[in-house]
Amino acid sequence: MKINAKEAIVKAAIVLFNSNGYSGTSIRDIASLAKVNTATIAYHFGNKPGLLEYCFTYFFEQYMSKVEEAYALIDKGAKDCLKRVVADLLHFQSENDQLASFVYREMSMDSQVVREIMSTYSLKEKYYFQKIFERGFEWNEFRPHSIPYLIIQLKGLLMMPFMNTHYMREVLYIFPSEPFFEQKYLKDIYLWIEKTLCTDVPSKKEAALK
Asked: What's the whole-model pTM score?
């Protein structure tokens, strides 16, 4: 299947931003790898900051769609909903490990585009996570916890393998893009949900069915 110029530019930018960093990558580098001229990049994205913003939006639009689709199943139970969110986000990041790696790295910097992302996608993500936890408390599925600290733990579990890919590969010999990693790590996150969050008493939904 032939890749169009815009797709080729995005793919090249992801590879180079991830390997060389945003500051260490030039428009000429991207054009060379994508096999296009710099004018084509200017036509589609304007400049390098415009291309970075596109990559951010491309990542977080898909990321948030996974969260929203999973949240639509909240009435089936908070635990099942959270497990669906975790599974879908882990799979998405594993399939797009280079994109996830450079996006998370750049999100640690203070810039206008990062602040814009935080004020839109990050706040929306917080809203859905908070609603899942609140429902879990309400339905006696989850033990009472500080929601901000639960979000810290959950985000840490989901992001760490993709924020520290060199450590994962060079020290732990674990490769986040491999199916085995996704299967094994998903079980570990499920264990965190079961042992840290879930209560030992029947939830209100379970009690209502008896």
From this structure: 0.89
